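Researcher: Here's a chain I'd like modeled. Treat it as a single chain, no partners, no ligands.
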Amino acid sequence: MTATATQTRARTLAELLQTPEYAGRTPFDGHIRLVQDEVRENLTRKLRAGEELFPGVVGYDDTVIPQLVNALLARQNFILLGLRGQAKSRILRAITGLLDDVVPVIDGVDMPDDVLNPIGAEGRHLLEAHGLELPIRWLPRADRYVEKLATPDVTVADLIGDVDPIKAARLGTSLGDTRSMHFGLLPRANRGIFAVNELADLAPKVQVALFNILQEGDVQIKGYPIRLELDVMLVFSANPEDYTARGKIVTPLKDRIGSEIRTHYPTDVRLGMDITAQESVRAEHIVVPPFISELIEEIAFQAREDGRVDKQSGVSQRLPISLLEVAAANAERRSLVGEGGAVVRVSDVYAGLPAITGKMELEYEGELKGADSVAKDVIRKAAGAVYGRLLGSADTKELEKWFESGNVFRFPQGGDAGAAMKATKEVPGLTELAAEVAASPDDAVRVSAAEFILEGLYGRKKLSRAEELYAAPEPETRQQRGGRWN
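Model: Modeled as a single isolated chain. Structure tokens:
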């Protein structure tokens, strides 16, 4: 229910009962609109209206989102299972968009409670004591989402709560009375959504307590049976690696999670580019040519396929996001010190190595070779792959022959873009190819395209490279190529 202006002004139960949505209702009437029902109703409305369900979630339209919608329509709790950097947390947080704008809850209690059918002892006592003068407050949807990152040291007290002897003495209640409890995160998420990230990291006894409070409505805290029939939607995320590396989900809890939804990395470079462009933060005046954006995204795809990179850990989508940010920052630094225009180039991508090495877990072979060496090799392969898609049919025989004649070319790293473009005319055909790739009259973009072309030829083993110096391929490489062509 989306609150109207009249509802927003309601401060007591009497005022609330005068609104159309609550007309005819009475205290303790037993009619409770559960969070799952609320989400289902709003989801149904959005589907019929053709509205966007989860803004900012890209690449899951035909895979994850249909399964997620099915789980929500079925009023199920669910778990998102996938490797790091697959937007699991973003999806969980996006579900708050399916809650009402605001809902009324009893004012003056720690646990958000229904104004007509409270589940907590404090709420029931206040309703009985105040009647129609019960004070209420309006809870916005942003405050109805509670998230907890699971770690092995999380306790039952953190999630459910603990007995507070001082509170019991002040109220004159027994220690087993829920009014004597200091509530944890889960009761404070009543009337909302409670998310647990990395579920498998929770200790088994905490998982059992979580299951008991949700399934049976009771839990034992320090030997006292506590009963709380919470109205909360529970959602989880977990990494498959956790099941063997750090922990597991206990069977009773796993059995009662309605749907297990598998997430994945972008299946297409273009989708990955959309995600990276959406999530990256950089100065607005920095130009990132399309072929550089594609190169940066292809680096993540190549890393995921590289045998030296641990596939169980995965290569997060944060790799291209961080790499684009660092490459753009390096281009900005160059422009500030007068070493070229603010256009991202291949050399800036190499300057972003720290954004790559920190995002890859290496296998034994990769550890032996070193993270920097593996990252540079991945950049080379990515450049070759993107070059193949953009210029695979281009005639570069004259250019290659020039290098094979013993010529070398040191790519200009600083100075005026116009001067750098003049320097590229030394290499036959490079200027013309750069103009074709750049599709821009801007010399700085054409310089970036020229460097990308040489890097692409290096990636396809038609050239060799030593820092910014390009030369003919090594003799053994030429022989291998000749053998294949013959």
